[in-house]
Fold these 3 entries.
Entry 1:
Amino acid sequence: MSGEAQGQTALLVNGVLNLICLTLILFRDSLFGGAGIGKRASGLKVVQTRDGVSPLTYGQGVVRWLSQFIPIFNLVDAIVPYSDPLLRRYGDRWAGTRVIDSDRKLEKDRRKIAE
C-alpha cells in the first residue's frame, strides 16, 4: 500500500511541476518585463505593436505562445518572419506584439557607431 501511495504522490508532484513550467513558458515575457532570460541575454524585448513602447500584457503573453503548441505549425511559424515587414511570427501578429532591441543594446550600438 505504501508503494502505491508514493507513486501517487510522485505523480501529483510531477503534475504540479509540469503546471508551473507551462505557466512560466506562457507568461515568461510578461512576467519578466517583456524579456525572458534568452531575450535579456541577446538584448531584445517584447512590446505592443500599437505604440512600440508598452510592455505586453499577460493575455498577450499567452496568445504569443499559442502557435508554438500547434503541432507542425511551429515550423511554418519559424519561416513567416521573413515575409513580414516587421519580422513578426504568427504568435506576435495574433497577440499584437513585436520583438525589438532593448534600450541598453541600442545605446551600446550607438556608442559603437559614434566611435
Entry 2:
Amino acid sequence: MYLKRLSLTDFRAFSRLDIEFPRRVILFTGANAQGKTTILEAISYLANFSSFHVSQDRQLLNFNMPVEPIMVGRIIGEFYSRGREHTLEVRFIQEYNGNSNQARFRKQVLLDGVPKRISNLYGHFNVVSFLPQMSRIIEGSPSDRRSYLDEILSQIEPGYVKSLSQFNKVIQQRNALLKTLFENNGDLRQLEAWDNMLATHGAVLMQGRIRALDELESHAFDVHQRLTRQSEILRFVYTPSYDPYVNGGEQLSLPVSNEPNYSHLSLTELEKGYKDALVLSRQTDLYRGSTSVGPHRDELRFLSNGIDLGYYGSRGQIRTALLSLKFAEVAWMKARSGETPVLLLDEIMAELDPQRREELLAIVNEVEQALLTTTDLSMFPDAFVESCDKWNVHEGIVTRIV
C-alpha cells in the first residue's frame, strides 16, 4: 500500500496543495509552524477520520477562507492497495442558512467517487503515525491508551468499529437507567437487557485488544532489541477492569509484575465473565450512577526490563519504546491485512542518541513508503538524505528540492 497523490483544498494552513508521491522515503523539511505536520495530519485523516491535533473537525477548515454561504475543505488521496488504485475524498462542509449566523457543519466521505458511511471505510487506507505528543500513549491516562488501541483496531479488525460504537451507546443507556433506578428505588433486574448487550459487544473489544497486544508485543520485541542493542526487553501488560479468571468482582488493579495472560480465552468465556462481573457490580454501579467494569475501564502498561515506563521511564526510553511500538504496528498491520501501511514520522530524531538514530533509519528503509518531517536535515546522515525524495515547506507552500 502506498499513497500516490495528495490534494488539499482549504485544509488548515493550505489553501491549495497538490503533491504526487513516489513509492519510497519522503522527507519534508522547513521551520516550525510552516505546514509539515499538517501534511501528515491530512494523510492520517484518510485512515482514521479524526485529527491528531484538533478535537472538532470544523477546526480543520482554513481559517483564512472568505465567509460564504457554503464553505468546503477537502482532502483527496489517491492510493494503491491490493493491486488496484483507489481515491478517497473527505469533504468538510460548513453552511450558513438564511439570516442565521449559526453555521451547520458536516462531513462527507467518498470512496472512488461514491459516498460511503465512515464506519464502512476503516481499513481501506492504513497508516501508522508517530508524533512527539504520542508519548501520552505511555505517559498519559488510561483513556489515552484505550483510544490508541481502538484507533489501530478500527483500521484492521473487522467488526471492531461497530462493536465499539454499540458498546458506547449501551454504556450511556445503562448509566442513564442506573440514575433513574437510584432516584426511584427501582428493581435492579431491569439492567438485565443492557448487561447482555454490554457483555456481547464488550467481549469483542476485549478479545480484539488482547490478541492485538499479544501480536504487537511479539513484533515490538525484535525492534526494541535492535534499537537498544539487546540491552532492554520491552513488554506490554494488559489489565482488564475485572479479572476474567474470576467471574466478576470489583475493579481490579493488578500489579504489573503479575503479567497475567488472557490470550487463550474464547469470546464465549470473555462474554460470560463480563456478564457475571456486571451482575456482581450492580449495587456499586447503582450508588455511583455509572458502570464500573468493562473495556471502558481497561488499562495497558509498558515495561522495559520490568520497569513501568509510564512512571519511571526516561525521555529516551519512552521515545524508544514508542518507536518500537509504531514499527510493530507496521509489521502487525501487514501480517493482518497483507498490506504495508504508510508510515508517518514527525521529528523522530529528537531525543535519540546517535546509535538509536542509526538503527531507526535502517528500519525506516525497510518499509514500502515513509513520510518524515524535520526542521534540521543535519540530524540525518548525508547518504540517507540523498536517498530520499525531499520537499521544503514554507508558509503553506511546498517546493521540491532537486
Entry 3:
Amino acid sequence: MRRKIHGYILQFTSADHDGRHIHVYRHEREIGVYDLVDGPIRGLASEMNPQLREALNAFIKELNERGFFRR
C-alpha cells in the first residue's frame, strides 16, 4: 500500500521482508524507514518533524483499519 500524505510518500509492503515497517520517500528519494518496534531508522530520525509525524500517524491509522499494521 502506498500513499502520499503532506508531500511524503509512505509505502508499506507486507511481502517486503521480516518486520513491520514503512518506507518513507520525499522528492523521489527514500529518506528512511519507520519501524513498528524501533521507530525511525535508517536516517529517518534526522528528517522527523511534526508534518512527517502526522503523515505517519494517518498512514498507520489507515493500515490499522485495513488490518495490516497493528500497534
